Amino acid sequence: MTSQLLKRSIQTLSSVAAGAVFFLTTSSLSVQAITLVTNRDDLEANDKIDWSSLEFGTPINITPITANLLPNSFQTTSQKGLGLSVDIPLIADSRYTPPFVFQTTPTLPTNFSNGDYILFTGFIPGGFPALGNPGPLTITFDQPVQGAGTQIAVDDTFNFTAFLSAFDDKNNLLGSFSIPGTSATVLNNSAVFLGVRSDSANISKLVYNSSENNRAFGINFLSIKSTTIPEPGSLFALSLLGVGLLGLLTVRKTAF
Hints:
The chain has helices at residues 2-29, 232-255, and strands spanning 34-37, 47-49, 58-62, 65-69, 73-77, 83-87, 100-103, 117-120, 137-145, 147-154, 159-167, 173-182, 192-198, 203-210, 217-219, 222-225. By secondary structure, the protein is an alpha+beta fold. The relative contact order is 0.20.
């Protein structure tokens, strides 16, 4: 009787343990949803890249802009050390400036916030509306992130549609999104925010562009949500589960 009761108890525990392992395995393999984020606070970012931090380029004065000219492709790091690369197509026309970073101020107003540093795709100075590099602007992370986004505005265009596509580390499309945007010369932080967030850290590349095929566009600082570390309680619970499974297997082996 005692041996039969012990056997039934162990079989029950085995079923529970197997169910727990199955739950953990299938949860980790489940499809991860990616969603559009249009408010920076909703991204719950824990990292960022401010374009003022770029320590390379060529300072130049394009009245009324004091700018830092950049290569069309470059690499940099976030505030917390995440590596990333930026790529903007080169236009084979010497009249176009390369991409550059400038600061929005009352004498150079945009509808970003006063003092924001803007990464701009490049344009032909003079005239209105100015011909500009339409991109796309591609940001590739050295390690996949859970979310990222920035505000965007198009040069000399009051109304436009902004587009964002996100890809994983195998260049599979995770999702594409579009939202209407406006540009203005009022420092009111009204430039639209366009970002994405996923259930897991599977976002390796972001591609930004707009509906305007011959206009430059700019983005301000990029907010990033990196992978979070499990809470100590979660780690402790997982370790207990591992110890329990190991003990169960040992009991079964010795009992039978």
